[in-house]
Amino acid sequence: MLTGREAVAQTGIDAVALKPAECDVSRATELPVDRVTIDYEGREHLPDPATLDRLAAETELYVTTPVRADGFDPLGDDSLVDEIPDAARRVLVAGHGAYLTDGESSRAVAPRLGAARRDAPDAWVGTEGVERVALAAGGTQFELLTRSTDRDVRALRAAGFEGEVAVYAPTVLTDDEDAVLDAVGAYVSRRRPVARALPDGGGSGGGGGTGADASPTDSAETGRAREVLSAAVRDFALVGSPETVRERVDDLREAGVDHVVGYPARGIDEFLS
């Protein structure tokens, strides 16, 4: 039986994304990949400079920085940028509303993304919700895996885009359907096409449904909703045996994707045990 490290290596994933609110990101040095990205989950969860320095010394480190957030706003307070090691690269994103104040969320993205790219020309640029602005800003386009990723990337390449494309996907290395749904069912239920397809319009596990009758969007789901979620996890996440994930990663690379970034949806231990 493969160890977690061996399984990850077999998938062909070349980067791992870690959420500092969920795990000790210093363990990134144990992962079987050289490239690590640190997600942004609020200022209080930003790793301290010493930890970032150690990671940057031992990995190819990327740190997600929302351009609308105080501390990373290139047109305002950018004091936190100094805490990112020179050896690390940034991932410039608009920023998820869950981690922004109302004031931050109201700030214009386009001028801030452009200014941040001028300050960090080697940064990756997150495309979620700002696809055209991100493409105009240039740099490595950092996309979430969707059911149209292959088609979209092929279209970019056909149109002459020569920059790099990186794709982020929650990853679950098992064929156990219940385990997969428990790990990423709520995540995929938040994708608009999935939320619309679910019988109740989404679930209490993070989808669009509300109230006592909302679907759980995990292994407790049954019937049509379970069918929708089971199909969706394969569109919006990398799931299955290492061999199955490897096939999907190979398809993405054939379409023109340069980097595949896996987020360990069941925790970092799955990638290390």
pLDDT under 50 segments (min length 5)?
202-213
Strand order of the largest sheet: 1-2-3-4-5-6-7-9
Count of helical regions:
10
What is the structural class?
alpha/beta
The name of the CATH topology of the largest domain is TIM Barrel
Overall average pLDDT: 94
Most strands sheet: 8 strands, parallel, barrel
Order of helices and strands: HEEHEEHHEHEHEHHHEHE
Approximate helicity band: 25-40%
List keywords for this structure.
273 residues, alpha/beta, TIM Barrel, 8-stranded parallel barrel, 35% helix
Provide a descriptive summary of the structure in words:
With 273 residues, the chain is of the alpha/beta class. It has 2 domains: 4-170 and 242-271, Alpha-Beta Barrel (TIM Barrel); 177-231, no CATH class. The protein is 35% helix and 16% strand. It has an 8-stranded parallel beta barrel with strand order 1-2-3-4-5-6-7-9, surrounded by 5 helices. α6 links the parallel β6 (140-144) and β7. The N and C termini lie close together (11 Å).
